[in-house]
């Protein structure tokens, strides 16, 4: 046994754990930390902006000036960006986006066909500079008054305009006015087709006839007196069954028919008797027969 020396045994000082060690907890090896809650990701952009890369990838062209036809339907576009640099563009589809203005399109002097249906447009002023525009589809936007179409009056080639599309259930607030059709025709007299219906040229008479019929059938379309109440065509009791009445002519016809039928029966009996006599006359005479040589 080792004798006790009487000296106090010194213990190593206790070092307090660091805050990071306290978070580790027991049983975690060095260098590993418990998973902390991740922060939320930054919100993505609310829409898409037109860029040169987007235009080149959608058209397959290397230069923006070489693009003639471009389809940008349903891409969530909110800004047309550099679209105005496509100076040779002739056909453009921007339907199904979230556009609120068409500023860059003012540079597209060669644009002939434009579809901006199903957007959020409240004006079409930039299109007044598209001097080659022939066909415009602006159904499904927020155009409220015919005056917002005044910018199109200076386009000599504009012949086709659509502000309402019943099949696609797209319209504009101005289409709800009863005078919408007449106001558009007065403002843009050069139009040949409005909302898919021909208003001038060959075939326009048929559409005009249909519109006149619709107007005449619409309730309250005419201030005149209401239609007279329908009256029966025939007198009361006309369709009731008439009582049967005896007729001497009918009785005489029946009597003659019965007489003719009786004569037929008599002739049939006489014919049967004649046939029976002929059969007896032609039958063999018996077992003994005499032959005359």
Automatic annotation (TrEMBL):
It comes from the Eukaryota. GO terms for cellular component: cytoplasm. This is Leucine-rich repeat-containing protein 61. Keywords: Leucine-rich repeat, Repeat. PANTHER family: LEUCINE RICH REPEAT PROTEIN (PTHR18849), LEUCINE-RICH REPEAT-CONTAINING PROTEIN 61 (PTHR18849:SF8). It comes from Callorhinus ursinus (Northern fur seal). Residues 7-20 have a biased composition (Low complexity). Residues 1-46 are annotated as: Disordered. GO terms for biological process: outer dynein arm assembly. The gene is LRRC61. InterPro entries: Leu-rich_rpt, LRR_dom_sf.
């Amino acid at each position: 046994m080792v004798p006790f020396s009487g000296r106090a045994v010194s213990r190593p000082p206790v070092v307090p754990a660091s805050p990071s060690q306290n978070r580790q907890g027991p049983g975690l090896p060095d260098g590993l930390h418990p998973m902390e809650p991740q922060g939320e990701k930054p919100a993505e952009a609310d829409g898409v902006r037109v860029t040169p890369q987007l235009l080149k990838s959608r058209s397959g062209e290397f230069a923006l000036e070489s693009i003639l036809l471009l389809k940008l339907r349903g891409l969530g576009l909110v800004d047309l960006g550099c679209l105005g640099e496509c100076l040779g563009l002739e056909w453009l589809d921007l339907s199904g986006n979230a556009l609120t203005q068409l500023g860059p399109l003012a540079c597209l002097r060669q644009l002939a066909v434009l579809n901006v249906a199903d957007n959020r447009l409240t004006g079409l002023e930039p299109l007044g500079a598209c001097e080659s525009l022939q066909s415009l589809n602006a159904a499904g936007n927020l155009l409220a008054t015919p005056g917002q179409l005044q910018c199109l009056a200076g386009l000599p080639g504009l012949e086709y305009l659509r502000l309402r599309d019943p099949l696609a259930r797209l319209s504009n607030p101005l289409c709800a006015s009863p005078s919408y059709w007449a106001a558009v025709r007065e403002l843009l007299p050069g139009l040949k087709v409005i909302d898919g219906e021909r208003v001038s040229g060959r075939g326009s008479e048929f559409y005009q006839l249909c519109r006149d019929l619709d107007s005449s059938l619409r309730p309250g379309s005419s201030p005149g007196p209401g239609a007279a109440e329908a009256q029966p065509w025939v007198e009361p009791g006309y369709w009731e069954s008439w009582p049967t009445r005896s007729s001497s002519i009918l009785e005489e016809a029946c009597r003659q028919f019965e007489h003719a039928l009786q004569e037929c029966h008599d002739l049939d009996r006489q014919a049967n008797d004649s046939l029976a006599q002929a059969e007896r006359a032609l039958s063999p005479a018996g077992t003994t027969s005499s032959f005359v040589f």
